[in-house]
Write a structure and sequence with these properties.
Blueprint lengths: L1 E5 L4 H13 L2 E5 L9 H11 L3 E4 L8 H4 L1 H21 L3 E7 L22 H17 L3 E6 L2 E2 L6 H11 L2 E5 L3 E2 L2 E2 H13 L4 E4 L6 E2 H12 L4 E5 L19 H7 L6 H10 L6
Parallel strand pairs: 1-2, 1-3, 3-4, 4-5, 5-10, 6-9, 7-12
Antiparallel strand pairs: 8-11
Organism: Thermodesulfobacterium geofontis
Function: Catalyzes the reduction of dTDP-6-deoxy-L-lyxo-4-hexulose to yield dTDP-L-rhamnose.
Family: Belongs to the dTDP-4-dehydrorhamnose reductase family.
Length: about 280
Amino acid sequence: MKILITGARGQLAREFIKELKKRDIEFVALSREELDIINFDKVYSTIKQISPDVVINCSAYNNVDGAETDFTKAYMVNALGVYNLAIACKELNAKLIHYSTDYVFDGTKQGLYNEEDQPNPLNQYAKSKLLGEELIRQVMEKDFLIFRVSWVYGEGTQNFIYKLTQWAKDKDVLTIAFNEVSVPTYTGFIVEKTLKALDKGLSGLYHLVPRGYTSRYEWAKLALRLLGINKVLIPVQKEIFNFLAKRPDFSAMSCAKIEKELGEAFAEWNEVCKNFVISREISV
Protein backbone atom coordinates (compact mmCIF):
# COMPACT_ATOMS: atom_id res chain seq x y z
CA MET A 1 0.00 0.00 0.00
CA LYS A 2 1.20 3.49 -0.87
CA ILE A 3 -0.20 6.60 0.84
CA LEU A 4 -0.06 10.25 -0.24
CA ILE A 5 -0.39 12.82 2.55
CA THR A 6 -1.24 16.46 1.81
CA GLY A 7 -0.53 19.34 4.18
CA ALA A 8 2.63 17.66 5.43
CA ARG A 9 3.62 20.41 7.88
CA GLY A 10 0.44 20.30 9.97
CA GLN A 11 0.24 18.54 13.33
CA LEU A 12 -1.98 15.73 12.07
CA ALA A 13 0.19 15.07 9.02
CA ARG A 14 3.31 14.97 11.18
CA GLU A 15 1.67 12.34 13.38
CA PHE A 16 0.85 10.27 10.30
CA ILE A 17 4.41 10.57 9.04
CA LYS A 18 5.81 9.38 12.36
CA GLU A 19 3.44 6.41 12.56
CA LEU A 20 3.81 5.33 8.93
CA LYS A 21 7.60 5.33 9.30
CA LYS A 22 7.21 3.15 12.38
CA ARG A 23 5.02 0.69 10.50
CA ASP A 24 7.25 0.76 7.42
CA ILE A 25 4.33 1.76 5.19
CA GLU A 26 5.28 3.44 1.91
CA PHE A 27 4.17 7.07 1.76
CA VAL A 28 4.80 10.44 0.17
CA ALA A 29 4.10 13.57 2.24
CA LEU A 30 3.77 16.90 0.44
CA SER A 31 3.50 20.38 1.95
CA ARG A 32 1.20 23.09 0.62
CA GLU A 33 4.14 24.56 -1.28
CA GLU A 34 4.73 21.20 -2.96
CA LEU A 35 1.07 20.46 -3.62
CA ASP A 36 -1.49 23.27 -3.43
CA ILE A 37 -4.79 21.42 -3.55
CA ILE A 38 -6.51 24.50 -5.01
CA ASN A 39 -4.67 23.80 -8.28
CA PHE A 40 -6.55 20.96 -9.98
CA ASP A 41 -3.98 20.33 -12.70
CA LYS A 42 -1.26 19.97 -10.07
CA VAL A 43 -3.44 17.73 -7.92
CA TYR A 44 -4.29 15.45 -10.83
CA SER A 45 -0.77 15.21 -12.23
CA THR A 46 0.73 14.59 -8.78
CA ILE A 47 -1.69 11.81 -7.88
CA LYS A 48 -1.24 10.27 -11.32
CA GLN A 49 2.55 10.36 -11.00
CA ILE A 50 2.70 9.00 -7.43
CA SER A 51 -0.15 6.52 -8.01
CA PRO A 52 -1.14 6.12 -4.34
CA ASP A 53 -3.71 3.65 -3.10
CA VAL A 54 -4.85 6.18 -0.51
CA VAL A 55 -4.78 9.98 -0.28
CA ILE A 56 -4.97 11.37 3.27
CA ASN A 57 -5.94 15.03 3.11
CA CYS A 58 -4.41 16.98 5.98
CA SER A 59 -4.61 20.28 4.10
CA ALA A 60 -7.13 22.66 5.63
CA TYR A 61 -7.87 26.28 6.39
CA ASN A 62 -8.41 26.12 10.16
CA ASN A 63 -8.55 29.79 11.20
CA VAL A 64 -12.10 29.84 12.54
CA ASP A 65 -12.23 33.59 13.12
CA GLY A 66 -10.13 34.43 10.07
CA ALA A 67 -12.66 32.67 7.84
CA GLU A 68 -15.26 35.29 8.73
CA THR A 69 -13.31 37.93 6.80
CA ASP A 70 -11.12 35.76 4.57
CA PHE A 71 -13.93 33.38 3.64
CA THR A 72 -12.79 33.13 0.02
CA LYS A 73 -9.57 31.44 1.11
CA ALA A 74 -11.46 29.18 3.52
CA TYR A 75 -13.78 27.97 0.76
CA MET A 76 -10.95 27.62 -1.75
CA VAL A 77 -9.06 25.23 0.53
CA ASN A 78 -11.85 23.50 2.47
CA ALA A 79 -14.28 23.11 -0.43
CA LEU A 80 -12.67 23.64 -3.85
CA GLY A 81 -9.40 21.96 -2.85
CA VAL A 82 -11.29 19.00 -1.43
CA TYR A 83 -13.39 18.82 -4.61
CA ASN A 84 -10.20 18.68 -6.68
CA LEU A 85 -8.89 15.80 -4.60
CA ALA A 86 -12.19 13.94 -4.85
CA ILE A 87 -12.32 14.18 -8.65
CA ALA A 88 -8.69 13.13 -9.04
CA CYS A 89 -9.02 10.25 -6.57
CA LYS A 90 -12.14 8.94 -8.26
CA GLU A 91 -10.62 9.07 -11.75
CA LEU A 92 -7.30 7.59 -10.62
CA ASN A 93 -8.77 4.93 -8.31
CA ALA A 94 -7.40 6.18 -4.99
CA LYS A 95 -9.29 6.12 -1.70
CA LEU A 96 -9.71 9.60 -0.17
CA ILE A 97 -9.52 10.16 3.59
CA HIS A 98 -10.61 13.60 4.76
CA TYR A 99 -11.15 15.35 8.11
CA SER A 100 -14.01 17.64 9.01
CA THR A 101 -15.22 19.27 12.22
CA ASP A 102 -17.76 19.17 15.04
CA TYR A 103 -18.49 22.80 14.24
CA VAL A 104 -20.85 21.67 11.48
CA PHE A 105 -23.42 21.42 14.30
CA ASP A 106 -25.18 24.38 15.93
CA GLY A 107 -25.03 23.13 19.51
CA THR A 108 -28.77 23.00 20.18
CA LYS A 109 -29.12 19.21 20.55
CA GLN A 110 -29.68 17.76 23.99
CA GLY A 111 -27.09 15.00 23.85
CA LEU A 112 -24.21 13.75 21.75
CA TYR A 113 -24.32 14.35 18.01
CA ASN A 114 -24.33 11.28 15.77
CA GLU A 115 -23.72 10.91 12.05
CA GLU A 116 -27.45 11.04 11.26
CA ASP A 117 -27.97 14.45 12.88
CA GLN A 118 -28.60 17.37 10.56
CA PRO A 119 -25.67 19.83 10.38
CA ASN A 120 -26.36 23.52 10.83
CA PRO A 121 -23.02 25.40 10.87
CA LEU A 122 -22.87 28.76 12.61
CA ASN A 123 -19.75 30.24 10.98
CA GLN A 124 -17.99 30.45 7.62
CA TYR A 125 -15.25 28.02 8.60
CA ALA A 126 -17.78 25.32 9.46
CA LYS A 127 -19.83 26.05 6.34
CA SER A 128 -16.73 25.61 4.18
CA LYS A 129 -15.91 22.32 5.90
CA LEU A 130 -19.46 21.03 5.48
CA LEU A 131 -19.38 21.92 1.79
CA GLY A 132 -16.16 19.94 1.46
CA GLU A 133 -17.90 16.91 2.99
CA GLU A 134 -20.84 17.24 0.62
CA LEU A 135 -18.63 17.55 -2.44
CA ILE A 136 -16.73 14.36 -1.58
CA ARG A 137 -19.97 12.43 -1.17
CA GLN A 138 -21.37 13.77 -4.44
CA VAL A 139 -18.24 13.05 -6.46
CA MET A 140 -17.04 9.76 -5.03
CA GLU A 141 -20.21 8.00 -3.85
CA LYS A 142 -18.05 5.33 -2.23
CA ASP A 143 -14.42 4.50 -1.38
CA PHE A 144 -13.93 7.55 0.82
CA LEU A 145 -13.65 8.20 4.54
CA ILE A 146 -14.76 11.45 6.14
CA PHE A 147 -13.88 11.77 9.81
CA ARG A 148 -15.35 14.58 11.87
CA VAL A 149 -12.93 15.41 14.67
CA SER A 150 -12.92 18.02 17.42
CA TRP A 151 -10.51 20.07 19.56
CA VAL A 152 -7.49 18.43 17.97
CA TYR A 153 -4.20 18.55 19.86
CA GLY A 154 -0.79 16.93 19.54
CA GLU A 155 2.87 17.76 19.23
CA GLY A 156 3.53 21.26 17.96
CA THR A 157 2.20 24.73 18.64
CA GLN A 158 -1.19 24.85 16.93
CA ASN A 159 -3.34 23.46 19.72
CA PHE A 160 -4.99 24.38 23.00
CA ILE A 161 -2.58 22.57 25.34
CA TYR A 162 0.46 24.32 23.87
CA LYS A 163 -1.32 27.68 24.04
CA LEU A 164 -2.13 27.03 27.70
CA THR A 165 1.56 26.56 28.47
CA GLN A 166 2.38 29.83 26.74
CA TRP A 167 -0.36 31.78 28.52
CA ALA A 168 0.85 30.32 31.83
CA LYS A 169 4.33 31.77 31.27
CA ASP A 170 2.97 35.30 31.25
CA LYS A 171 -0.04 35.18 33.55
CA ASP A 172 -0.88 33.97 37.03
CA VAL A 173 -4.62 34.09 36.33
CA LEU A 174 -6.15 32.48 33.23
CA THR A 175 -9.72 33.01 32.06
CA ILE A 176 -11.14 30.01 30.21
CA ALA A 177 -14.59 29.47 28.71
CA PHE A 178 -16.90 27.11 30.60
CA ASN A 179 -19.79 27.25 28.12
CA GLU A 180 -18.04 25.68 25.15
CA VAL A 181 -18.24 21.89 25.31
CA SER A 182 -16.82 19.24 22.98
CA VAL A 183 -14.34 16.33 22.90
CA PRO A 184 -10.55 16.92 22.97
CA THR A 185 -8.97 14.57 20.43
CA TYR A 186 -5.29 13.67 20.25
CA THR A 187 -3.65 13.39 16.82
CA GLY A 188 -2.15 10.03 17.75
CA PHE A 189 -5.64 8.73 18.51
CA ILE A 190 -6.88 9.99 15.13
CA VAL A 191 -4.01 8.35 13.26
CA GLU A 192 -4.38 5.01 15.05
CA LYS A 193 -8.12 4.76 14.42
CA THR A 194 -7.82 6.03 10.84
CA LEU A 195 -5.33 3.29 9.97
CA LYS A 196 -7.56 0.68 11.62
CA ALA A 197 -10.53 1.90 9.59
CA LEU A 198 -8.39 1.76 6.47
CA ASP A 199 -7.28 -1.80 7.25
CA LYS A 200 -10.91 -2.84 7.70
CA GLY A 201 -11.92 -1.27 4.39
CA LEU A 202 -14.44 1.13 5.90
CA SER A 203 -16.05 3.86 3.81
CA GLY A 204 -18.41 6.69 4.67
CA LEU A 205 -18.83 9.35 7.35
CA TYR A 206 -17.74 8.78 10.96
CA HIS A 207 -17.32 10.80 14.13
CA LEU A 208 -13.76 10.10 15.28
CA VAL A 209 -13.37 11.18 18.90
CA PRO A 210 -12.74 9.49 22.26
CA ARG A 211 -15.61 8.87 24.66
CA GLY A 212 -17.07 11.57 26.87
CA TYR A 213 -16.93 15.35 26.62
CA THR A 214 -15.78 18.38 28.57
CA SER A 215 -15.66 22.16 28.63
CA ARG A 216 -12.64 24.25 27.70
CA TYR A 217 -12.37 25.20 31.38
CA GLU A 218 -12.36 21.61 32.67
CA TRP A 219 -9.91 20.58 29.96
CA ALA A 220 -7.58 23.41 30.96
CA LYS A 221 -7.79 22.37 34.62
CA LEU A 222 -6.83 18.80 33.77
CA ALA A 223 -4.02 19.77 31.40
CA LEU A 224 -2.41 22.21 33.84
CA ARG A 225 -2.63 19.69 36.67
CA LEU A 226 -0.99 17.00 34.54
CA LEU A 227 1.71 19.45 33.51
CA GLY A 228 2.34 20.50 37.12
CA ILE A 229 1.49 24.13 36.40
CA ASN A 230 -0.11 25.95 39.32
CA LYS A 231 -2.22 28.86 38.07
CA VAL A 232 -5.55 30.38 39.00
CA LEU A 233 -8.24 29.44 36.48
CA ILE A 234 -11.39 31.53 36.23
CA PRO A 235 -14.37 30.12 34.32
CA VAL A 236 -15.99 32.69 32.05
CA GLN A 237 -18.53 32.74 29.25
CA LYS A 238 -16.93 32.44 25.83
CA GLU A 239 -18.78 35.56 24.68
CA ILE A 240 -16.40 37.81 26.63
CA PHE A 241 -13.64 36.98 24.14
CA ASN A 242 -15.61 38.65 21.32
CA PHE A 243 -14.71 36.05 18.72
CA LEU A 244 -15.58 37.04 15.17
CA ALA A 245 -17.00 33.58 14.50
CA LYS A 246 -19.94 32.23 16.43
CA ARG A 247 -19.20 28.87 18.05
CA PRO A 248 -21.65 26.20 19.23
CA ASP A 249 -22.10 25.87 22.98
CA PHE A 250 -22.22 22.07 22.77
CA SER A 251 -20.77 20.15 19.82
CA ALA A 252 -19.70 16.89 21.45
CA MET A 253 -20.03 13.91 19.11
CA SER A 254 -20.76 10.24 19.71
CA CYS A 255 -18.13 7.71 18.62
CA ALA A 256 -20.57 4.77 18.84
CA LYS A 257 -20.75 4.14 15.09
CA ILE A 258 -17.02 3.79 14.52
CA GLU A 259 -16.56 1.87 17.77
CA LYS A 260 -19.02 -0.70 16.45
CA GLU A 261 -17.34 -0.85 13.02
CA LEU A 262 -13.87 -1.29 14.53
CA GLY A 263 -15.09 -3.69 17.22
CA GLU A 264 -13.58 -1.84 20.15
CA ALA A 265 -14.48 0.51 22.98
CA PHE A 266 -12.60 3.80 22.82
CA ALA A 267 -10.90 5.36 25.83
CA GLU A 268 -12.34 8.39 27.60
CA TRP A 269 -11.00 11.76 26.40
CA ASN A 270 -9.28 12.47 29.74
CA GLU A 271 -7.37 9.18 29.67
CA VAL A 272 -6.16 9.90 26.15
CA CYS A 273 -5.09 13.39 27.22
CA LYS A 274 -3.32 12.05 30.31
CA ASN A 275 -1.37 9.52 28.26
CA PHE A 276 -0.34 12.23 25.81
CA VAL A 277 0.95 14.59 28.50
CA ILE A 278 2.86 12.03 30.59
CA SER A 279 4.49 10.40 27.58
CA ARG A 280 5.95 13.62 26.20
CA GLU A 281 8.11 16.44 27.42
CA ILE A 282 6.09 19.60 26.97
CA SER A 283 7.88 22.89 27.49
CA VAL A 284 6.31 24.89 30.31
